[in-house]
Specification:
- The complex is a heterodimer of chains A (140) and B (446).
- Chain A is α+β, with helices and mostly antiparallel strands and 140 residues long.
- Helices cover 46% and strands 23% of the residues of chain A.
- Chain A has 3 helices and 5 strands.
- Chain A has a 5-stranded antiparallel beta sheet, covered by helices on one side.
- The radius of gyration of chain A is 20 Å and the shape is elongated.
- The N and C termini of chain A lie far apart (56 Å).
- With 446 residues, chain B is an all-alpha fold.
- Chain B has one domain.
- Chain B has 16 helices and 2 strands.
- The radius of gyration of chain B is 22 Å and the shape is globular.
- The two termini of chain B are 16 Å apart.
- Classes of the chains: A alpha+beta (140), B mainly alpha (446).
- At the A-B interface, helix 1 and strand 1 of A face helix 3 and helix 11 of B.
């Protein structure tokens, strides 16, 4: 085997190893974030529970916040227009535990009932046109 | 040298200056030259430049140098950028950005190969980088005269007014001015005719004044390091070298001090009522009280104002910690080339950026430890080749390119730009790095 062939074979081996490692890291990271999001959802309990306190509206996702003790921002869960949970935050500790798949939303397999989220957003005072806008943007 | 190659050289010189200008305009504040025009034109210019550069390299007489460590290092970095599409959340974006980055490296390598048999080595191309940058700086000053509100970021309670010129923010073009200042110093060094000297000094002063006015501290430090490296590396008498090192230090102090002169405002400026405010959407809107972008360290509405001190890093510390934690989740291969601003989430007060503002962290986020290793290996190869070339006949040009690379490496500690072709300092940095990576055989200037 010549030097060039050996170098080419080594490069291909490294490339294959990197693809395997890259995809393994991607799914391991996603699993970790999904587990943490599920824990926050579990702690929250039913989305329409009595501790529902605030909402957050961003173009790419919307969030519901829940009170724990005097902290009205203690727990937060964020979902996109399909109801896919993309971020969850537990602020009962410092620094807050943030689990997020914003950069890779397709990797999240955690869903909440989106119509229920919309209903709760409206109940918290979000004007209806903003809820419509979420779904119009998603359709577009 | 035949006529075709001279024409190619002239064309490359013109297109290289154009590329610097259009990349700068594309991230500028002057509509419509920024988004609708600049962002399209810069890619056209890059494509044309790549075509010219490839022909220039192909028509160089004599054998091409054998691919060595430099080619391997460039190949590894570019290969990794493309390969990362296999694990990227957005393969299309990764491939697009890897292509533009590869094009810039190909332009640099082709120019360096062609310049081995060029009319004046690397000089025409350094001059092109300087002319493009000088144009942006001069038009930035004119912008200040005619559109003051666009050319200056107004004072707030936290910091004084900052000059932004044509840039989208004060740092945008200050980065370019910082790493091109060693080329500007070189032009003074090599100017022969009186008009050349006057033009070279005027360009240097315009670039430095724009940099000082921007109060962009990372860029000011990078300029100082670059200029000092230039002075230490060019052939000078010991006494002249000492005087110039002291002058470089004095210039650094003056640039840093200039940023402290503009007074802070009593009240924050009123933003545009139509789109400059974030009013709460309802009484229970959490964003108004606790914005996600300020989650870590937010003092609350009406809380204490963070003032920008001379040695303040602009809130980078917590942002870097956060970026490192994100990088640790996918440490070896990263999230995918070109996804830095998509992966990094600014949750840190008072930090304001969609990137961590550290190129090395940005590279780790994009392509993991493997990518950082590839970049450091490339810089290492460039440093070794430059150290050898400094003993050769073209020491002044080598010193200039090395000073640009050193300045760029320092700037990368405070700004995210190394792999973003759309960032103004990226093209000059990589052109200079590749001019160093390919051994030259340029004739001495008459």
């Amino acid at each position: 085997m010549t030097r060039w062939a050996a170098a080419a074979a080594a490069a291909v081996a490294v490339a294959v190893a990197l693809v395997v490692v890259g995809n393994w890291e991607r799914s391991r990271h996603a699993d970790g974030e999904v587990d943490a999001m599920l824990r926050v959802l579990e702690t929250i309990g039913p989305l329409d529970g009595p501790t529902l306190s605030r909402f957050r509206y961003l173009p790419q996702f919307q969030c519901l916040l829940y009170r724990r003790g005097s902290d009205v921002y203690a727990l937060e869960v964020c979902a996109d227009a399909d109801g896919r949970v993309v971020e969850a935050i537990d602020r009962r500790r410092t620094p807050p535990r943030i689990s997020s798949l914003r950069e890779d939303v397709e990797q999240s397999n955690v869903f909440v009932d989106r119509p229920e989220v919309d209903r709760l957003l409206l109940r918290l005072g979000l004007p209806a046109r903003y809820v419509r806008l979420v779904h119009e943007r998603d359709d577009a | 040298m035949n006529r075709l190659r001279l024409q190619l050289e002239g064309g490359i010189q013109f297109l290289l200056a154009q590329l610097v200008v259009w990349v700068g305009l594309a991230v500028g504040n002057v509509y419509p030259w920024n988004i609708p025009v600049g962002r399209a034109v810069r890619w056209t210019v890059l494509a044309l430049l790549l075509g010219f550069a490839l022909v220039y390299a192909a028509t160089a007489r004599g054998a091409l140098p054998r691919p060595g460590r430099a080619a391997a290092a460039v190949g590894a970095l570019v290969g990794l950028a493309f390969l990362s599409a296999a694990w990227s959340a957005d393969p299309g974006l990764t491939l697009g950005r890897a292509t533009s980055f590869a094009a810039v490296l190909a332009v640099g390598a082709s120019i360096a190969l062609g310049a081995r048999r060029g009319s004046d080595g690397a000089r025409p191309f350094l001059l092109a980088l300087l002319v493009g940058t000088g144009f942006l700086a001069v038009v930035g000053v004119l912008h200040l005269l005619f559109e003051y509100d666009d050319a200056v970021v107004p004072a707030t309670r936290g910091q004084g007014a900052r000059f932004t010129g044509l840039g989208a923010n004060p740092d945008t073009l200050a980065m370019l001015y910082a790493i091109v200042l060693p080329i500007s110093a070189w032009s003074i060094f090599e100017a022969r005719a009186r008009w050349e000297k006057v033009a070279a000094v005027a360009t240097f002063l315009t670039l430095d004044a724009s940099l000082a006015g921007s109060s962009s501290r990372g860029a000011i430090v990078a300029a100082f390091v670059g200029l000092t490296a230039f002075v230490l590396l060019v052939p000078l008498t010991r006494r002249t070298r000492l005087v110039l090192v002291v002058a470089s230090l004095a210039l650094f102090a003056a640039n840093a001090f200039a940023g402290t002169l503009p007074p802070r405002a009593q009240n924050d400026p009123a933003l545009n009522e139509a789109f400059g405010q974030t009013p709460p959407l309802a009484k229970r809107d959490a964003t108004h009280a606790l914005p996600l972008a300020d989650e870590i360290g937010f003092p609350g509405r009406g809380g204490s104002v963070r003032t920008r001190a001379l040695l303040d890093a602009g809130g980078r510390g917590p942002a870097w910690e956060g970026a490192l934690r994100q990088a640790a989740d996918r440490p070896i291969a990263g999230y995918g080339f070109g996804l830095e601003e998509r992966v990094f989430v600014d949750r840190y007060y008072p930090f304001i950026s969609d990137r961590p503002e550290n190129s090395y962290l940005g590279i780790v986020l994009q392509v993991g430890a493997a990518g950082l290793l590839a970049v450091l290996a490339l810089f290492g190869v460039v440093a070794v080749k430059a150290a050898r070339a400094l003993r050769g006949p073209d020491r002044v040009v080598t010193a200039t390119c090395l000073a640009v690379v050193v300045s760029g490496a320092v700037l990368a500690l405070a700004q995210s730009y190394l792999t973003s072709v759309g960032s103004p300092p990226t093209v000059p940095l990589w052109i200079c790095a590749l001019l160093l990576a390919v051994p030259r055989a340029a004739p001495a200037r008459p």
